[in-house]
Amino acid sequence: MSILSRLLPPGRRHALPLILFMAVGFAAPLFAVIAYSFVPARTFDLWADWSFDNYLEVFNSTSYIAFGWSLGLAAATVLILALVCYPVAFGLARVFGKWATLITLLFTLPLFVSENVRLYGWIMVFIKNGVLLGTLKSLFGWEPDSIVFTPELTLLGMVYVYLPFMLFPMTLGVSMVPQQTRDAAYDLGASRWQVFREVDLPLSMPGIVIGFLLTFVLAVGAIAEAKVLGGQRIIPIANDIEVAFTYAQNWPLGSALAVLLMLLVGFLVLIVLRRFDLDTILGRR
Amino acid sequence: MNSRSDRMIRALIWAWASAIILFMYLPAIGLLLASSTSSRYFIFPIQRWGFDWWQKTFVSLEIHQLFKTSFAIAGSVTVIAVVIALFGALAFARYDWKGRGIFQKIVLLPIFFPQTVLGLALLLWFNALGLQMSWQTAVFAHLVWIIPVCTLVISIQVYSFDPALEEAAFDLGASRFQVFREVTLPVLFPGIFSGALFAFLLSWGNFPLSLYTTGADTTLPEYLYSKMIAGYTPGVPVLGTASTLGAGILLLCGYLLIVYLRRRRSADGA
Amino acid sequence: MTGIMTGRSPILQLRNLTKTFGSFAAVNSIDLDIAEGEFFTIVGPSGSGKTTLLRMLTGMEFASSGDILLRGERINDLPANKRPTCMVFQSLALFPHRTVGQNIEFSMKIKGIDPARRKARALELMAQLRLPENYYAKNVTKCSGGERQRVALARALAYEPDILFFDEPLSAIDYKLRKTLEKELKDIHRETGKTFIYITHSLEEAMVMSDRIGVMRAGRLVQVGTPQEIYTAPKTKFVSEFIGDVNIIAVSVNGSGVTAPTLGVGLKSPPAPAGFAAGHLVVRPESLRFLEHAGEADNALSGRVYNEYVLGSRIQYQVRVGEQVFIVEKLRQQAFAGKLDDNVLIGWDAKDSILVTD
């Protein structure tokens, strides 16, 4: 056995390229953001005097409104998606049989089309004289107000965009419940509702929680929905960050905002993920 | 559990899923309709059907350049991502090693990260390194997000891989490289192929990472976004519909290929 | 049968072979000689180190210390693909993307043998293992359990190994087919004359096939011998229990006999070896019999029939003597005439019992 293979057993050897890439492509940029958040506002020099001024500015600004909108919309998205997706996930795991693969593909396909383009499609549906209102007008002569550029449509857009991110982990979770365990519960006299509460829900929890986490985290960082469908009526936090980086040319301030968002996201991800064994969820025998 | 109410629940689940699928495709339908009118503005019901805008869009030289850039990025991303992700997936699901648990979580982190923030962080990082933004930096940016996705997709195949296959080939006299070429690669092929498909399509459709990291180069989604906010032009629904159809066809072909391979594998003769 | 190996030179010698993982010794200083052409089986419960031992012998794991000698040459550091030995895996590890023919030919393809010769040899092996010729182009995943076993064996034989290793290949197969395949494997061992080293957790399986058996416990070889020796003269309680249903009575030596503290009686036993102070007395269920009078056997105990279990041609009875449970086994023709809960007298002769250490 050579020294190399002793230092680098197969697992570590295979992981190495990915780890190196993530160090340069993921960890380093995040550290750069953290570093920038401490330099004076509107400078681009990393080696200027470091201070907490940017954070103070954030806390004294109205950014909390943007944070509030982002968190609120994300929570609403998760809640709606939980209800919308569970029956579909259950169907994919238990009811659809040989159709399950095709249906999964149908839910995967939209992921491959740019988010903006798909959201723009909703405009075509909801705009005045669009697919929906045009049909109502020509068929019933009814002309309700369009909901384009409202917070409600923003929420609808988020539900639409993040649906697969809730559905797929949830399906993995639901498929982890052995049918025999459910049958045993029925056999022991449980009602349909009791089986759901006592067997289905706890046993599929890992997948459900990961679905919650994924959708929540992605939805907190959402920006396109508010831009395309919300008509800038609401400003989510990602928008504030983008503005600071682009129009305002204030990278340090943008970095401070980004760090706060990262802390929130990272904290949530770490507490949830450390509780799960990914092998059981992804199907290691 | 009586079978009549059971049947009713199954029917309800089917109905609900169908409704959700319709919901998922409503915007695509909207785009398709908007692209099929000859008029400059979209008014429904459509007065004059026609595909004039399809023709106008696809003869445009600008569009050709966009396709080229998008293709260059997605192609490079696919090749690099599949190679790194294949080894990553083996580390993720095949080998038991100290640190595997942490490794698995590190792989997931970029997926659990808002892409806009990731794009801006990369912009800042490239800038600190003194790099000029171009389609190459965009390739790098896409990889940060796509390698983890690709690793997960391939890992699912690796989980069902029996490590004894590799040992058996090794025991029968094959070198490490022969084991990889004759056993590991062909057995994992369906997973690798799905990973490649995911990598290509996700890169092709990506907007938030491209936005900050392409510099002077422009990808298709970026162009579409700029047109979208500049005011209505029927080119947007045309290209949107084309993207959806293109992704659909590619996905369907890939799916059929995997079904074909699986069937050939389980059939007699080869 | 017991004289089968006399005069043959050892093909494989293990000298103080040890494998440690951290401070844990999975295989602990094993010394063993295996003769050319021998069918040797290593038996042990899961976790006894038998798989680790086998993996060292095949070259998939490397020894921490000690030596492995193949025909006198040290092969410790030779990796699996360089060793002239081959293994049949527990999962069989047939290549699912290949046909039966391609699986068998794999090693020949690696060696660069031309396709025509490869095919001829593959068909020869298939005929030898009673696989129909038209299976050559059949996909392995379409084969039945027994057919897959034969393909795996043919693939290993095609490598022309000096030693064939088996890692419990029959463990996942149902009882009836397993019994058939055990005998088939022993026939193939005769036909090929190769050295077979087999590991299993089933001593019953080992008994059917092996020339010699080595019993492993906690990384050590606790007893090596012919099936006959292992069956009739186990040295420890562990080995005797491993054979199947046995009655074990804790005893201590007392003059010419032994006393059983749990039963509160003295018992007649075979003479205790020198230095043997306390241990166990092992009596097989078939050596126990129902008595009319206490004088009919060297040892007699009175108990109560608690239950009976019909095992085809034989019947077992659970007899409770105080707290201790005894298993008595009778042929169907000699079945116990009484009913459950009857008080009975059971007994055995000293020559039918074995003294073993802990």
UniProtKB/TrEMBL annotation, chain A:
GO cellular component, one term: plasma membrane
Keyword field: Cell membrane, Membrane, Transmembrane, Transmembrane helix, Transport
Keyword Transmembrane: yes
Record bears the keyword Transport: yes
Domain ABC transmembrane type-1: from-to ranges: 67-272
Residues spanning the membrane: 15-39, 64-89, 96-113, 119-140, 147-168, 203-224, 256-276
Membrane topology according to the record: Multi-pass membrane protein
GO biological process, one term: transmembrane transport
Compartment annotation: Cell membrane
Predominant place of localization: membrane
InterPro entries, A to Z: MetI-like, MetI-like_sf
UniProt cross-references to Pfam families, sorted A to Z: BPD_transp_1
Family from the record: Belongs to the binding-protein-dependent transport system permease family. CysTW subfamily.
UniProt name for this protein: Spermidine/putrescine transport system permease protein
Source organism of the structure: Dongia mobilis
TrEMBL record, chain B:
Pfam families: BPD_transp_1
InterPro entries, per the entry: Bact_Polyamine_Transport, MetI-like, MetI-like_sf
Family: Belongs to the binding-protein-dependent transport system permease family. CysTW subfamily.
Keywords from the UniProt entry: Cell membrane, Membrane, Transmembrane, Transmembrane helix, Transport
Membrane topology: Multi-pass membrane protein
Gene Ontology terms: cellular component: plasma membrane
TM ranges: 12-34, 71-95, 107-126, 138-162, 183-204, 238-261
Protein name: Spermidine/putrescine transport system permease protein
Main location: membrane
Keyword Transmembrane found: yes
One of the protein's GO biological processes: transmembrane transport
Residue intervals of the ABC transmembrane type-1 domain: 67-262
Residues in the signal sequence: none
Lineage, highest ranks first: Bacteria, Pseudomonadati, Pseudomonadota, Alphaproteobacteria, Rhodospirillales
Compartment list: Cell membrane
UniProtKB/TrEMBL annotation, chain C:
Pfam family of the protein (one): ABC_tran
GO molecular function per UniProt: ATP binding; ATP hydrolysis activity; transmembrane transporter activity
UniProt KW Cell inner membrane keyword: no
Ranges for domain ABC transporter: 12-243
UniProt cross-references to InterPro entries, sorted A to Z: AAA+_ATPase, ABC_SmlMolc_Importer, ABC_transporter-like_ATP-bd, ABC_transporter-like_CS, Mo/tungstate-bd_C_term_dom, P-loop_NTPase, Transp-assoc_OB_typ2
Gene Ontology CC annotation, any one: ATP-binding cassette (ABC) transporter complex
PROSITE patterns: ABC_TRANSPORTER_1 (PS00211), ABC_TRANSPORTER_2 (PS50893)
One BP term from GO: quaternary ammonium group transport
SMART domains named in the record: AAA
Keyword annotations of the record: ATP-binding, Nucleotide-binding, Transport
PANTHER family xref list: AMINO ACID ABC TRANSPORTER, ATP-BINDING PROTEIN-RELATED, SPERMIDINE/PUTRESCINE IMPORT ATP-BINDING PROTEIN POTA
This protein's name: Spermidine/putrescine transport system ATP-binding protein
